[in-house]
Design brief:
The complex is a heterodimer of chains A (464) and B (428). Chain A is built from 19 helices and twelve strands. Chain A has helices at 33-62, 74-83, 85-96, 112-115, 117-135, 151-159, 171-174, 198-205, 220-228, 256-269, 277-283, 306-309, 312-322, 325-330, 334-344, 346-350, 369-389, 397-434, 445-463, and strands at 3-10, 68-72, 100-102, 141-143, 164-168, 182-185, 192-196, 236-242, 246-247, 250-251, 273-274, 289-290. Chain A is globular, with a radius of gyration of 25 Å. Classes of the chains: A alpha/beta (464), B alpha/beta (428). Chains A and B meet through α13 and α17 of A and α10, α14 and α15 of B.
């Protein structure tokens, strides 16, 4: 039996304002508030609200049959909370129907997964917490910004305890293989990989309203037929897209929502079901390991990192940015940490792309890639200065690094000791339980408790 | 196909961009299989490159019949014109010009520059062109810049051949809108008579359409190109020290210091940059009517210690300036084309140009700002000087881009346009 896995991404980047180099050191606010409010409100009105209403309607109409997954970046959550809280409410309403699974993501929608594992773990955990507080779900499946995946990232994500991860079914990775199976990470088979069928996904997100497309106009019956006609062995059809595909990329006037609403019915007629990513991960076995040496993404024909890291300017920008990653991670300045999240967002890098086709030429406030680079580097210049000001001027990177390593080692050590203590306590408890009658009046138990508390206290004190 | 061209300047004796462009156009055009070019110059020096075309010096064309013998002519002007051609031209004198000042060969003297009596010189050029137009055989006439438009019209009237005019600049560019009515009159007359108007950019084309009221159908944009660097120039460029070694960056302006080129915006942007950082030097090479005003402005902004005026650069000096520059800036207020950023990019110097320059239409691996936006310009200068990645990218990609812009391609386009003009001229 075939199953569809439907997933929507919600992300809106924080627009940077025009920041001249003489603002460096004078102005520490980097954002274009007007544009941020305008764009998020527009996206909410034209896309998120109608699309989420449609999903809620579908959940009501089809009951348990219809399922989907959604992930939000931290930046998007913050923007929605500030400017379009009705979207969060709709998401909560959708959550109450029980048809949606929330996935984990990076908080910043950046590429810390490629640059700094510690930073990456921290921001993923932060997002999970945020999702938990908003929707009461603890994400079990991970989805990286722009669907970036490589073996190394897979290992990292598996290490964090996720069961599965979404990735692109890129041709150059799959070769003759089909994306319609569940694969696993080659460095840690516990992590299952769901690969996007980009052709079927982009039929909706990219081509639906394209009147020059040979399949135009696309009807739900046709689409369901395509899926039904896939080989019998094909188990999972992963259809991933941005939520703003419904309404922005494909305008509402194209009747995209009617298409979506009709789809479950037509799929049900053909015996195809819906599943959430974690259902797939627990039900379906991996049919093999996948080797992805270089990162893949879901953008452009190349489906690699070229839209963000294709030219020297982009690479310079990301290197400069992550050169202070550790310093930011250990600091406690809230504003600095917030800026850090916003500056990491992938869109900032994408504006610097010199690929002719990228983004459909959309560059926000920038007139050229060089303009985008200049503006970003000015902001980064100020940001890095602020970070460095937090630390003694004479402390060079190497020294700081060695200190960081020491701290990290101590943390690891403490963690191990905590575990050991727990184990010992557990054993002690067992021992005590095993002979409660015989040693009822034995005084041994009493001193044990304070000693335990003492060690624990010592441990926490050391941690601090 | 034979073309009769009228020009004013030709390398190696050039005063501005017109000479360079004339050379490129003729050299590119001569690569076309059946192209024969005759190029008329007011005053050739004899050391011009004649390998791919004939040059007729207007100062050697007789307009008054003088009884001179072969040997005398040969001894007088043999290095510039063959006596046979002199006598052939002498046979085509079409009116009595005895009242005009002529020399012993019956020729008018030309300065070949832009003298104070420029209108007289233009008029004389047109008179002489009448003789040339009657003697030469050609299929089409091509006149470069407004100085030669009257000559082109004259030739068209005499021969009935189609006239193509090449607009390298208009008076609207030179004067920021305050046109000289005489110059405007000459330009408009030329355009009205032309069968095809080649403009060096879309920007110029729009000026021609909107300010000279020309039919858009006969205006075509014909962008300029650049010649590959000679070995000598490449050797100069190769002496550049690596970026990392140059602790002081140099930002350069190179061109006439005149209103059209927007030098004051360069100074203002420099002042902004220097508020922030001191390890950048600014170089304003060239001379012109705004030189003194600029020196004063620099002093006023208190940046004279970082701002240098090396004066007019010629020949190899230009490339030495490029060699020592990290950024080239052309903040022109209205530039019909502007060949110098292309040359800078050839030398591997990242360029900042104004949107109001024609070359901005064909360049993408450079930074573009509005000429008045000194903040954006300052930002761009600072960014290239401080970010190695941007510098490297623009240096390498810019060179690659500009290497693709060749005169051969322009020559092919001009040739095709000629054919269309001829087709239209004789069949409609």
């Amino acid at each position: 039996m075939k199953t569809i896995c439907l997933y929507f991404e919600i992300h809106q980047n924080i627009h940077l304002k025009r920041y001249h180099f003489f603002d460096i050191g004078r102005d520490h606010y980097y954002y274009d508030d007007y544009e941020n409010e305008r764009s998020i409100t527009e996206t909410a009105d034209r896309s998120y609200v109608p699309a989420l209403n449609a999903l809620i309607e579908m959940a009501g109409r089809y009951g348990d049959y219809f399922k989907c997954a959604i992930s939000l970046s931290g930046c998007a959550i913050e923007q929605l909370e500030n400017h379009a809280p009705q979207v969060i409410e709709l998401l909560q309403k959708l959550n109450e129907t029980g048809c949606v699974e929330f996935l984990a993501e990076t908080y910043s929608h950046g590429f810390s997964s490629l640059k700094n594992p510690d930073c990456f773990k921290e921001e993923v955990q932060r997002l999970c917490k945020k999702v938990k507080s908003l929707f009461g779900q603890t994400p079990k499946v991970f989805r990286n910004s722009c669907l970036v995946y490589s073996d190394e990232i897979g290992e990292l994500v598996a290490g964090m305890g996720f069961k599965g991860m979404l990735a692109e079914g890129a041709k150059h990775v799959l070769g003759w293989k089909s994306p319609h199976f569940v694969y696993s990470c080659n460095r840690n088979p516990n992590l299952k990989l769901l690969l996007r069928d980009y052709s079927l996904s982009e039929d909706i997100s990219l081509r639906f309203n394209d009147s020059s497309w040979c399949e135009y106009p696309l009807f739900a019956e046709t689409y369901a037929d395509w899926i039904a006609r896939l080989p019998e062995e094909d188990q999972v059809i992963n259809i991933f897209m941005e939520l703003c595909a419904l309404g922005i990329f494909q305008p509402l006037s194209s009747n995209i929502l009617e298409f979506m609403k009709a789809l479950p019915d037509k799929l049900r007629e053909r015996g195809i079901v819906f599943s959430t990513p974690s259902e797939i991960c627990s039900k379906i076995k991996s049919s093999g390991e996948l080797n992805v040496e270089y990162p893949t993404s879901w953008v452009d024909e190349e489906r690699d990192m070229s839209p963000w890291l294709g030219n020297v300017m982009q690479r310079e920008a990301i290197d400069k940015l992550y050169s202070v990653a550790d310093r930011v991670r250990i600091c406690t300045d809230r504003r600095l940490k917030q800026d850090w999240d916003y500056l990491q967002a992938s869109n900032n890098l994408r504006f610097m792309s010199t690929k002719p086709s990228s983004y459909g030429g959309y560059r926000g406030i920038y007139s050229s890639p060089y303009d985008a680079f200049t503006n970003y580097m000015n902001i980064l210049g100020d940001f890095i200065n602020r970070v460095n000001n937090l630390y003694p001027a004479d402390m060079d990177n190497e020294e700081l690094n060695s200190l960081l390593t020491t701290i990290k080692n101590q943390e690891d050590e403490l963690e191990m000791k905590d575990k050991e203590i727990e184990k010992l306590q557990h054993m002690l408890g067992k021992l005590e339980k095993g002979e409660p009658a015989a040693e009822k009046d034995e005084p041994a138990r009493k001193p044990a408790a304070p000693r335990r508390a003492a060690t624990k206290k010592a441990a926490t004190a050391a941690k601090k | 196909m034979k073309v009769l061209m009228f020009g004013w300047e030709f390398p190696p004796h050039i005063l501005g961009g017109l000479g360079t462009a004339s050379y490129g156009i003729t050299a590119g055009l001569s690569k076309q299989p059946d192209m024969h070019i005759t190029f008329c110059l007011p005053r050739p020096w004899g050391d011009e490159d004649k390998s791919f075309m004939n040059i007729i010096g207007m100062s050697e064309v007789p307009i008054v019949w003088r009884d001179v013998d072969y040997d005398y002519v040969k001894q007088r002007i043999g290095d510039k014109m063959s006596p046979e051609l002199y006598f052939a031209l002498r046979d085509h004198i079409y009116a009595d010009f005895n009242y005009r000042l002529t020399d012993d060969l019956g020729c008018i003297e030309f300065s070949g520059r832009y003298p104070d009596n420029l209108y007289d010189e233009i008029n004389n050029y047109s008179i002489v062109a009448g003789v040339v137009a009657r003697q030469q055989e050609y299929d089409i006439i091509h006149a470069h810049d407004w100085l030669t438009y009257p000559a082109g019209i004259h030739a068209k009237n005499v021969s009935g051949k189609p006239l193509v005019i090449h607009v390298h600049a208009t008076d609207f560019d030179r004067s920021r809108g305050h046109v000289n009515p005489t110059v405007y009159g000459i330009e408009k007359d030329g355009m009205d008579h032309a069968d095809c108007i080649m403009c060096v950019s879309e920007l110029t084309r729009q000026t021609v359409i909107n300010h000279y009221h020309q039919d858009p159908a006969k205006c075509v944009a014909m962008h300029n190109a650049v010649y590959p660097l000679s070995q000598e120039v490449q050797d100069i460029i190769a002496q550049r020290r690596p970026y990392e070694e140059r602790t002081e960056k140099v930002v350069t302006f190179l061109g006439r210091l005149t209103m059209q080129k927007g030098p004051e915006y360069f100074v203002e942007a420099a002042a902004l940059v220097l508020q922030r950082t001191r390890n950048i030097r600014f170089c304003m090479a060239g001379s012109g009517d705004m030189m003194n005003a600029m020196i004063e402005l620099v002093a006023q902004r208190d940046i004279a210690d970082r701002f240098h005026f090396p004066g007019f650069m010629k020949g190899k000096q230009v490339y030495e300036v490029f060699r020592d520059s990290d950024v080239y800036v052309m903040p022109s207020v209205s530039e019909p084309f502007g060949i110098s950023p292309l040359e800078a990019m050839q030398c591997g110097v990242p360029s900042i140009i104004s949107y109001q320059s024609g070359c901005a239409e064909i360049l993408s691996k450079c930074i573009k700002t509005d000429y008045w936006d000194i903040y954006a310009m300052a930002d761009a200068m600072y960014s290239i000087c401080t970010n190695n990645a941007l510098y490297t990218y623009l240096r390498d990609e810019g060179k690659k881009e500009v290497d693709q812009i060749t005169w051969e391609k322009v020559g092919k386009r001009i040739y095709d346009t000629y054919q269309q003009v001829l087709e239209k001229y004789y069949h409609h």
